[in-house]
């Protein structure tokens, strides 16, 4: 019986060591700045940065900058309508270079407007929230 326990322990320890060796290295990501804006320019920089948008707004941009980030790291932009506690959508995107700037947007279909109220956008890496911005439509 003791021999069987030693064999099982050896097999489990070996499996743990092998699986640890095969795990990918820890990915690093550093979002340095975020802001919401009504538009972006050709360099993906915010135009009209604000956290208060007028009633009738159809699109809100979340602009961000990053540095010291592994290329092709996947980030998730999670958009929420906080007023009614509604998760609107998740948008996955990949970081294209080690440092830079970019944006994602929440856009209503043609002829529709974002409802008035409080919103939040979280930039997540896995389950970790890297940055969070709140804004409102009024």
List keywords for this structure.
138 residues; alpha+beta; five-stranded mixed β-sheet; disordered N terminus
Structural summary, described in words:
The chain is 15% helix and 51% strand. A hairpin with a 5-residue loop joins strand 1 and strand 2. The longest helix is centred in the first third of the chain and has 21 residues. It starts with a helix and ends with a strand.
Summary?
The protein is an alpha+beta fold.
* Radius of gyration computed on alpha carbons: 22 Å
Structural class: alpha+beta
Note the overall shape.
Answer: globular
Beta fraction: over 45%
Element order: H for helix, E for strand: HEEEEEEEEE
Layout: helices, strands, pairs:
Layout: H1 2-22, E1 30-40, E2 46-49, E3 52-53, E4 59-67, E5 74-81, E6 86-94, E7 100-107, E8 117-125, E9 128-137
Parallel strand pairs: 3-9
Antiparallel strand pairs: 1-2, 1-4, 4-7, 5-6, 5-8, 8-9
């Amino acid at each position: 019986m003791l021999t069987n326990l030693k064999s099982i322990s050896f097999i489990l320890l070996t499996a743990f060591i092998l699986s640890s060796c095969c795990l990918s290295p820890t990915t690093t990501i550093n979002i340095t700045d975020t802001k919401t804006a009504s538009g972006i320019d050709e360099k993906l920089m915010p135009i009209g940065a604000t956290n208060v948008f007028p009633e009738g707004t159809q699109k809100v941009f979340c602009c961000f900058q990053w540095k010291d980030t592994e290329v092709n790291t996947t980030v998730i932009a999670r958009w929420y309508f906080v007023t009614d506690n509604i998760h609107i959508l998740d948008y996955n995107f990949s970081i294209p270079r080690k440092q830079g700037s970019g944006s994602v947007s929440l856009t209503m279909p043609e002829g529709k407007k974002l409802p008035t109220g409080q919103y939040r956008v979280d930039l997540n890496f896995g389950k970790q929230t890297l940055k969070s911005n709140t804004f409102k439509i009024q």
